[in-house]
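Students often ask what a holo structure prediction actually looks like on paper. The answer is less mysterious than it sounds. You provide the chain, you provide the ligand, and the output is a string of discrete structure tokens encoding the 3D arrangement of the protein together with cobalt (II) ion.
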Amino acid sequence: MSDYKLGFTTQKKEIQIDQLEVQGTIPDWVHGTLVRNGPGQFEVDETSYRHWFDGLSQLHSFHISNGAVSYANRFIRSVSYEEDNANGKVNYAGFAVDPCRSLFKRFFSAFIPDENPRPNANVNITKIADKYIAMTEIPMAVEFDPKTLETIGVVDYDDDIKGQVTTAHPHYDAKRKLAINYVLNFGPMSTYNFYAHDGNTRRLIASIPASQPAYMHSFGLTENYIILSEFSFRLPNIFKLAFRSVPFIENYEWMGQEDSRFTIIDIDSGEVVTQVNTDAFFGFHHINAYEDGDQVICDISAYPDARLIDQLYLDSLHDGNAPSVGEFRRYTLPLNGGRASYEMMSSESIELPRINYSHNNGQNYQFAYGASSREGQDDFINQTIKVNLKDKSTAIWHEDNCYPSEPVFIANPSPTSEDDGVVLTVVLDTAKATSFLLLQDAQTFQEIARAYVPQHIPFGFHGQFFSN
Ligand code: CO
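The corresponding structure tokens follow.
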């Protein structure tokens, strides 16, 4: 079970194809562009990036219109991409790269020396006002042209909201018409600074102190609350960041004896409503969260510890060691005191979770989609799932030699149910050494069409669909 290594193999070829070969029939209402982000290059000449999260960002776009699909891919012209390729070696400080030129030294200095820093924004995509941007965990987003995928430049905010680390998973609060995210500001007392972005300016919502900041990749949002889930993977001493020459993520420690903690913050007042502890755990992705009387329900793709981060080093992946995949845990957070407990919502594992976001984020919901690894198989992500949270039943899509990525749910514009839509997934077919875009009916989870790309697409992280 090591075929999946093709997904961690560089794809240097930037192509543009007007019409992919399509099998099956794509519904007429599916009209728009799926833009995906992820690493496209894992080494420069003889030197390699060390971690999956450090590969050089490559954007992929699938434009769907009248049943036809076009495709393009293009690297972000980040400083790392241009300088490393020009110099013929890896030389930048990312998630787990040796900090030859430490970004964290920059964080502690009063200025950023580069005129145009352009980070390796390889995690996610979003749209703020009219700008399409690629994001990573350094709070500098990179704007790109959605048609050509050309890099435009860094989106910078001239305001007082300061921090050195962010999440590439902002939430959109549909009721208040605000994007919400935080920046973690390191200092003698570090703070998670939550802000709201109305499309023009950013406004500080809440500043939550953190004596030992946790590594977090996402957070939860309900109708009235932000849910900050501080896992037990923490920075014991933030000053080490400034003085030790250790890659960013290797400064964090797993503290399995210490509780993890949910902080529930009122969006309107910025007040902390309550903090709820639970046994130590780790996760990257919140699935959804919602209020239910005097408790908050918080669904997370969860792990018993943070070993997954080590399992995602490229050496380990190239050796064929399959990483673990999270459990679908539903945490119940009491608002009036007491610890949080969880129940499992599926017998299948789940990662890269998606929901019908525009209709159900922050609300009680019935369906979640995700990538997963087949039970009992020591393999990389090799199936996608649809979990029915009412009865905990799970539908599965799987095909031999196929490795899917994040399944993105697209709602029918005139929906009759929560799952009325299609699911778009980029799948690597290792037997054919190519990738294809899989379209499934979200209700039945059956394939309706696929569109073949004439080359392989390395495993990516996240994408967004923008309807026309
Ligand atoms: Co993510």
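The pocket of cobalt (II) ion is lined by residues 123, 169, 217, 284-285, 461-462 (CB under 6 Å).
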